[in-house]
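SEVERITY: medium
COMPONENT: batch folding queue
REPORTER: lab tech (J.R.)

DESCRIPTION
The queue accepted two submissions in a row. Attaching both inputs and their returned structure tokens so the on-call engineer can compare them side by side.

ATTACHMENT 1
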Amino acid sequence: MYKKLLGQTAIYGLSTVIIRLFPFIISPFVTHAFGPKALAPFIDFYSVAGIIIVLLSHGMETTFFRFAEKEDDTKKLISTATLSVVGASFLFMLFCFIFRQDLAIAFKTPDQVNLLTMMLFVLGLDGLSTMPFVILRKTGRPKKFAVIKIINGIINFLLVVFFIVILPRLGREGFLGLSYNPQFGIGYVFVANLVASAVTFLLLVQEIKSVSLAAFDWQLWKKMMAYSWPITIAGLAGVINETMDRQFLKYLLPDGTNTEQMAIYGAVCKIVTFLTLFRQAYLLGIEPFFFSHAKNENSGRSYAKLMDMFVIVNCVILLALCANLNWLARLYLSNPAYNEGIAIVPIVLIAAVFLGIYLNMSVWYKLSDKTIFGAYLSVLGAAVTIAVNFYFIPSYGYWASTWGTFLSYFSMMTASYFLGQYFYPVPYHMKKITAYLSLSILFSVLSYYVLDGNLIIGNLLLLVFLGIVVYLEKDTLKRLRKS
């Protein structure tokens, strides 16, 4: 079990982590080159990117793997799912092009219509690429999957570095007639994203060519949509929890301070990527694993053990980041203008741990075909996020967004556990999980807030926690080492 899971995570998860690692590495270059005011359009526009991607894919990735377990005609399944996503993506890009000026006015950025249009087309191209990547996973071509993902990240990274680091140093002569335009500024990052997405789509065109319009099945599509729409609602609510607080900051704070607070909040939250990279790799590998092992007699015990491992790794990363946050965050942000927002990072990190546990628990409603509960839980989290942001942002700014995220993910995690134990019981080791969580959160709070980020004591607490884990999990570590 462990070998297969680690293999899937290594092949598919690490390639996805690598492409997400590139924007993470790019961020210090961007924050160094642009202060909060200049960075604001990028944070603003991409804060709604998640909603658009969820709508374009409308849950077809998870739905595809679920139906692959019971649908014999693979070509019909691939064609039906792919044409659904491709159709939505083309309609989206057409709509955005026609109404680009109106959309810019709605964003309160009528003078940045070109930047917004580029971002929307990036998302449209990413939508077109969604199902081809799923097809590669389904047909067992991990090398092509990984190579294309990595090419996307490399192109994006190299272009951003060229545009905002190298090109300004070349002066008026520029490079091949192209010189840096300070007024375009953050627009170069949008251009880099657009080029990377376009190249990725071109590399995946062959997968779309294999899709047959004649193989599209309306009846199958209706069944898939019945399964996927709750996942879509859950995804939309999840995005509200994750990024829409930037929009609340923009619209609920007074003009003049709103965009700056939004940019600071968005920039410092990037630090959480240290934690979420592991979660993304794990979940990408675990989802097919959950479905394929659902019929095994001891599947519940396996899921419980995997949860133990997941929580332990998250707690170690959380504590390591909090113990080293003062120097790490300043080095990463690379611009003193953002330092005032570092204090919120430990709370956002703890919230990210809660979200990871919730997503790991989501196996119960996916395997029991009760995906509607995923929607209910995400709507619960979104309601908490909206309520906290709406009532407290005018007084507390991005601190309200921080605590809204914390309370949202905690409520989702807690509610999911109790519902899951009723509908699809998994024998999670709750005493152990709660103990690890509580201890790591206590040490993190002591390390950063009480001891003012003392580097030595913080890392000593990390070593103490690691020692406790090694002692309590020595049998599991021995089995892992042998396998």
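ATTACHMENT 2
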Amino acid sequence: MISVNMITPQEMQKAIAKQLRRLRLELNLSQQTLSEKSGVSYGSLKKFEQTGQISLASLLKLALVLGSMDDFKMLFAEKSAEKALSLDELIKEEKRERGRK
């Protein structure tokens, strides 16, 4: 399914980094303090906030400390059949029962 909101992976990385930085500052945490609390190296955190690049494990550690772990639960959650189908499939109104065609 093609998203209507065409954002590149790089743009999404930077947006997530910006949101993390905003939350860190709202919580009045320095990069050094967040690094120590999360176990993510200061260099990795600094690089993430500047470029958006970070490992998934480190991102999850940061999310845990910032109280955002629940945001990841829905990342690849099952969606209703109507949302997952293409326009052609919706027109045919066929229900897929298996992942293979």
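NOTES FROM REPORTER
The mean pLDDT is 85.
No errors were logged for either attachment.
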